[in-house]
Structure formats: structure tokens, C-alpha cells
């Protein structure tokens, strides 16, 4: 592909107003349109009708502009100039084969577009936050008492934290505060607990529940609240949990210290079968070998790309509490591991046909340190190493098996 020598352009300025106000998003290929809130339906339509899969949609900062950009580009050039082609059921007769197109940020143009959209959204969010910080026209009632507040939003937020032990964060960490408070007020009006989100028969029962259970807080795992916190807009491709785990408090406390002897703390690698973390992969392999009888040679006997696929496959199966050898499913990971140790299914690799598939090139977990430490065996020379990699294909001649096991099911 040709190198990109100049910044990409977002959709033309003349259409931006229409883009901002329109609640609809068009299909990249046809005239079908869907409401922005029905994003999943549009993605499903493009997979089924046009065989297009967009990777990591949740990381796209402005979905409508992203779609409009690629609709314009696909009208200018063939889709194969941009997308990887995944051929399914390639050993079957020609009429039973399908070509799917994968659009992802491996393509430099797509990566740059995503970053530009994220930066634009960040600028807008920071401008909105700045306006709210100095806004003196704020007016709202407390959600827990009859007191009325005017002036700056911080007065109300500090009151609820101090008087009612309801702390949704520092005012400067919140954006679109009025909308946020309206969402919370609507839940209370519907007699719904803000934390566990159970619905109660009357207001007094709800108040007693939230007080006794200490549920006078919001559920941090509820993704609906993410858009109200500035931290979720700061770094491309990172959630608030990942950003928060990067603890910078020591930097703030020791700004004047000499950092010449500073060393970076190693990132922890997580066991394939449990929650155990170690600061080196050697310790991790030792843990798996001693506690779980997992043979390190099971991985190192494979080339790098096979190791990547196997690790992602094992992580996916363990996540689903499913034995990767006999496919028996369990209620908990503990039950699964106990079964695998008793039957010794943990000690040998599953059948290669189950994991040596292109869908397992994609990480099961983001920032999986174990994947970063994999390497080819020095003594292993195979035909795969002499080929140009990656080759994206999916060779499953049984169409029924393809439909059951394909990653496209999860995307749908």
C-alpha cells in the first residue's frame, strides 16, 4: 500500500452541520440508514449484507464521521485496497465460499483516522469541561434533600459528598454535569438504586436500601457513566481502569528528586488458568508447571504465530469456563481447572484444528503481556517461517462448523 505523506481529511466542512444534527448513520455501501443509537444494527447489516467487519468499533471516538469517511473512500477506490480479505470455507465448492473484509487500524490510514477523531473529541470535551468549571449559571436541586443550589456545580457536588456521603468524583473530573445529574435523578424517580439498579416499591424503601447497603454511590462498572468522566477521553484505546492503574502519585510527590537511577517497574504477566500474576514470564511458566502441571514446551515447541493463536485460544476457552480438550463446560473456573488437572487435559495441547485459525491472531485480552514475551524456538524450522506472514484465511470445509465457531458470531 502507498505511504500516507500528509494528514487525512475529515468529511468536508460544508457537511459537518448536517453530520452533527443528523441522528442517522448511513451504510458504507448502500442507502440503508440507522439511528446512531442503533449502531449494532448497522454493523450487523454490513456484516451480513456486505461482508464487512470493522474491528474495535468501541475505540472509534466518532462513529458517524468514521463511517462517512470510509463511505467516501470506498466510493473512490476498491475495498481490497484497504481491507484484509478473510476467505471462509475455502475448501468447499466455489458457491459455498465467502470473502469477508476486515477494516482495522493495522491499516495506517484507518489508524490515523481513529487518532484524529479521538483528538477532536478530546478537544471538544476539554472545552466543555472548561466552560462548566467557570459556569456560574448552574441551578439544581439536591437529589437527597430539598436544598436548592445556584452558582457553580461544585457547590452541589461537594454538598452531596459531605452531607449525604454521595461522591461521584471531583467536579473537575466530570464533564456534561447537568446531563449526568439528570440521568441519576431519573433513576431515583423510577425508584431504582443507583448502585445495584434494583427497583423498589416506594421511595422510603429505596432510601433505606441505599443507606443500609451503603449503595449511595454509582456502579463504576456501568459503562453508561463513562462518558461523564474526562479520564475516559484522555488516551486512545484505554479505559478509565487502565489509565487509573498507571499510578502517578509518586511523580507528583517527588518532582524535585533526581530521577537518574529510575527504573521502570515490569508489567505483570497473568497465568493462563488463574488470576496469579508474576513480574517475569519465567516465574509465570514455573507457576503453571508446578501448580497446574502445564508443560512450557507446549508453547515453545511452536513457532511465534502459532504460540499467539494458542495463547489467545486458551484464554478464550478458560474465560468461557470450557475445557479446551473435551469441550465440557463448567459453572466456575475453579471447577474447570479441577477437572483439567484430574483428567490431565491441562498437560497436552488441544487438537490443532481447534486453535490454529486466523481469528486467534486477535488478542482475547487487551494488553496481554504474555503475548509480548513469546518468541520462536531457536531450533525450530518449519515451512511456516519461510512464508510471508500474516496470511489471513479460514479453512473450514464444514459450513455448519464455521457458523458455530467463527469469530463473526461474536461480532454479530
Model description:
- There is one protein chain.
- This protein is mostly helical and about 400 residues long.
- The chain folds into three domains: about 25-125, no CATH class; about 135-245, no CATH class; about 270-370, no CATH class.
- The protein is built from 17 helices and nine strands.
- The protein has helices at about 15-20, 40-50, 65-75, 110-135, 155-165, 175-190, 205-210, 240-245, 250-255, 280-290, 295-300, 305-320, 335-340, 350-355, 370, 400-405, 410, and strands at about 25, 35, 50-55, 85-90, 100-105, 140, 150, 270, 275-280.
- The strands form four sheets. The protein has a three-stranded mixed sheet with strand order 3-5-4. Strands 1-2 form a two-stranded antiparallel ribbon.
- The longest helix has 26 residues, at about 110-135.
- The protein is globular and about 70 Å long.
